[in-house]
Amino acid sequence: MNNIVLQARNLSFAYFNTPVLQEVSLTLHSGERVGLIGPNGSGKTTLLRCLSGVLPPSQGEVSLDGLALRRLSRQEIARRIAVVPQELLVPFAFTVREMVGMGRLPHVAGGWQALLRGENQADRRAIEAAMLATGTVDLADRLFNELSGGERQRVMIALALAQEPEVLLLDEPTVHLDLAHQVEVLELIARLNGERGFTVLAVLHDLNLAALYFPHLVLLEGGRIVGEGTPAQVLSEETIARVFGATVRVQPHPTADRPHIIVLPG
User: Fold this and answer.
1) How big, in percent rounded to 5, are the helix, strand and coil portions of the chain?
2) Contact residues for 50 (Cβ-Cβ < 8 A; gap 6+)
């Protein structure tokens, strides 16, 4: 078994005394690619925020490479955990190259002022490698806010790669994308996971895409993990009916060794 990279133990979180996560324990190993699924309001985004150190848990602990996250600075965490949000609002006219360059901020002593004075050779190498890996080199001089949804998603992934993280956390990376761009983004994530070996945890809504692109799934319901394992182990007809309230048939995928879910009307 690969080394444990990120671990949550008995994690609970509440917003204004309303429980959102309840005693969640989750272990991510080096190089794993894990899909986090569950109904709306089940706590998926909150769990990602706790795992990235943005939200302090009400109870329990998150550790990174065996070190408690609460003992690490935001800069130390950002060097090792990169987060790709659902959407990134950019109020200024940054080019794609400038956006990807922001991923180097955790590695720059002195913060923004030092980064604005100029990138060093390691920064330039990381930025160029991230843009090459995500196919965004041709977009370098375009304004981020003028890109299509699929292009913006690839740029946000490039920004995360420029951080050179151990762990990549993605919150619904296919949201607002059409089917072709959803597949493009998930193919990119799978390829980068294989090539670079970092650990991936992604929140997903489409169960078929989750089954197809993620070898390991974690199912949340009501702030608790109620299923974990391979897609075939997690995505049974009974479980989907109970957790999602949908009547489905689960059949073998026609070309992949994964389950394929067919929603039945009524």
Assistant:
1) 40, 30, 30
2) 8, 11, 13, 21, 56, 57, 62
Q: Residue 165 has what DSSP assignment?
A: -
Residue with tokens 């950019």: 90
Place of tokens 């990174």: 64
What is the DSSP-derived secondary structure letter of residue 204? Answer: -
- Strand boundaries in the chain, DSSP class E: 4-15, 18-29, 33-37, 59-64, 67-68, 81-84, 167-171, 199-203, 216-221, 224-229, 248-252, 259-263
Report the C-alpha gap between 72 and 93 in whole angstroms.
Answer: 33
Q: Tell me how long the chain is.
A: 266
One-letter amino acid at 173 equals P
Alpha carbon separation from 14 to 50, 67, 106 (Å, rounded): 11, 23, 29
Q: If you search the block for the tokens 């050779």, which residue do you land on?
A: 121
- 51-67 b/e (C-beta count within 10 Å ≥ 16 → b): bbbebebbebebbbeee
Q: Which residue has the tokens 């309001």?
A: 41
What digits encode the pLDDT tens for the residues 172-218? 999 889 999 999 999 999 999 999 999 999 999 999 999 999 999 99
DSSP string, 96-125: HHHHHHGGGGGG-TTHHHHHHT---HHHHH
Distance CA 45, CA 56 (A): 14
Q: Please say whether the beta carbons of 223 and 19 come within 8 A.
A: yes
Percent residues over pLDDT 90 in the chain: 84
